[in-house]
Amino acid sequence: MKTPSTGALAASMIGIAVLALIVTGRPGGHAPAPSPAPEGPAPSSVSFAGFTLTSDAVSLPVDDRQFPDGPHADVINANCTSCHSASMALTQPTLSAEQWKATVTKMKEVYKAPVAEQDIPAIVDYLTALSSHQAK
Amino acid sequence: MDKLDTWLATKSSRRRFLGRAALGGAAVAAGPALAQSLVDLHLPGGNAERPITSAFPGKGSMILQRMHPPLLETPMEVFDRDVFTPNDQFFVRWHWADIPTSIDVDSFRLTVRGHVERPLSISLAQLLRLPRVEMAAVNQCSGNSRGLFQPRVPGAQWGHGAMGNAKWLGVRLRDILDYAGVKAGAAQVRFGALDQPVVAGGPDFGKALAIDHARDGEVMVAFGMNGDQLPLLNGFPTRLIVPGWYSTYWVKMLNDIEVLPGPDDEYWMAKAYKIPATPGANVKPGAKDFPTVPINRMIPRSWVTSLGEGQAIAYDRTIPLGGIAMGGDCGVAKVDVSADGGRSWHPAKLGTDHGKYSFRRWDAQVPLAGRGHVRLMSRCWNSAGHAQPMEPIWNPSGFMRGNVETTTIVAS
User: Is the pLDDT assigned to residue A32 strictly greater than 60?
Assistant: First the structure.
């Protein structure tokens, strides 16, 4: 058992003061005056000492873009558009078949993409063909 | 005009690939069907056109790299306007698409757990009552400028705009950890967030810092960005700020702080965001088996922002040139500029110092040797005496680019 130093004691006293604060929760008297909202209630907010945080709700644009048509487009569309936009692959530079194979394997092994083993060659062919058109 | 040409070329090559006319949408890699306008990121080898979008909540005009989950890049001209990047044009980067689209400030809790005496569950009302600190700091993606690597490497194909500078307002992580009481033997602190993998078993995003780093008094939990709350896409309501370190550690929508008795061995620390353990993270192109370490401190960088790649100007004996610089993990000591591809250099005048982790504006008046193509460069020295190297580095993940960049303009 160590005897706490003065520094440690001071720190733990601050700790206790703030802990009490954390345990007691929201202080009274700082509720922002509700501003009349024309449509429905205003989003909730918390403020203290000149700073306010207001609940936020957004909607994100939906990407329904598919891979361009071509041999095996159906296979790549079925396997490579669920976790991220097709653009993740379409913005890539010209990559070799080997590099594409490594990427597809990474999707399956690391990110747990449910890609069937027998679909991999078709996906790699599609991407390699795309790359060689890009290079022209 | 060459923008239009490249665009048309992309369009026609994709058409050939399609074998029949596409019903729109196939022209630009990242694009929605009707791109509003395009920007050329000048990535070597092409496929460099990206749409400009204003379709994201809380965001103005941004370069669209990927819609789902969003990867949005800041256009370079934004950096010319102010050393602080406005919240609505600050870059956006998520790994997994399960991002909460609504956050309720009453029910949100930041938990502190693990190797601590007193696990905490902190509400935002409580967080706001803790002692506050504010700091200007650059937030830069590990892979910023990856698209410029040669040979090219897979990953998000960023130009230079996966970075931004803001005044972050929040609470010292040290204070939070001290309130929780870190137990002896703590080694690291892991930070978890509200975003989740979209498939079962996928690696949940989390990052860790050594306990001493976490307690250095600079690392903070921010709730304010340039005087406002954070845009949801930049991590509302709370984000970790790790001054001088790459953005991968600046966990967004931070809701979990876990003190660990050993190193974090999960995917995003143990396998991803690793750099070669070589000077400057540099290896021979194609190199594979080399020792690695987690990416960490940033390095000095600088950019010309007053003129853009390919811009035409009227010839004059001298021209004004301006831009921004960052020291990385310390301040900016000096910036030199060149208008002849690096043969002669001229000192730039540094603007207001907003702190060692901030962008610093620089301005200079440089002589032009003649008409025609002019290769502009800027080179930053940080306060530790490190200068940007002239030659680019290479590594297979495209991390830590920091060489002197060239902007070619035409004077006529």
Answer: no
- Whole-angstrom Cα distance, residue A77 to residue A85? 10
Size of interface A-B (CB pairs under 8 A): 194
Q: How far apart are CA B234 and CA B21, in angstroms?
A: 39
The answer to whether residues B337 and B348 touch, using CB atoms and an 8 Å cutoff, is yes
At residue B9, does pLDDT exceed 90?
no
Chain A: give the shortest CA distance to residue B120, in Å. 8
Question: Which ipTM was obtained for this model?
Answer: 0.90
Provide the pLDDT for residue B36: 66
Regarding pTM above 0.95, the answer is: no
Contacts of B33 in chain A (CB under 8 A): 65
DSSP letter at B148 equals: G
Q: Is B302 helix (H, G, I), strand (E, B) or coil?
A: strand
Secondary structure string (H, E, C) spanning B332-394: EEEEEEECCCCCCCEECEECCCCCCCCCEEEEEEEECCCCEEEEEEEEEEECCCCECCCCCCC
A59-95 residue pLDDT tens: 999 999 999 999 999 999 999 999 999 999 999 999 9
H or E element in which residue B268 lies: helix B267-270
Give residue A112's region: left, alpha or beta (phi > 0; psi -120 to 50).
left
How far from A119 is each of A69, A125, B251, CA to CA, in Å? 17, 10, 35
Q: Which two tokens stand for residue B286?
A: 């194609």
Residue among B20, B43, B47 with most chain A CBs within 10 A, to mutate: B47
Backbone conformation region of residue A63, classed left if phi is above 0, alpha if psi is from -120 to 50, else beta:
beta
As a whole-number percent, the residues of chain A with pLDDT over 90 amount to 65
